[in-house]
Every structure is written in C-alpha cells, then in structure tokens.
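An example makes the point: we let one protein speak, the chain in one-letter code, the fold tokenised, and here it is:
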Amino acid sequence: MADRNTPKKHGKSADAREERLKAALKANMARRKAQAKARASSDNDAEKDEG
C-alpha cells in the first residue's frame, strides 16, 4: 500500500506513451462525437419523413 504514494519516475518512453494515449483519446472522442451527431441528424430526418 505504501507503493501508491511513492512518486513515479517518468522517462522518455513514459512521456511518449502518455502522448500516444492522449492522441488516441482525442481521436476517439472526436469519432464518438461525430457518430452521435450523425445519429441525431438521422433521427431528425426520420421524424420529418414520418410527419
């Protein structure tokens, strides 16, 4: 349990990994946002066709 409080040493590989993870997360969020927008737009189109 004491291991949790010890500071971690970040090397170049850890920083590069963090940067890759940040980039992947950003891309994933953008993709999900685009999917949600497309779903909302298709739902609106379906409602207009029915009415």
Summary: The longest helix spans residues 12-50.
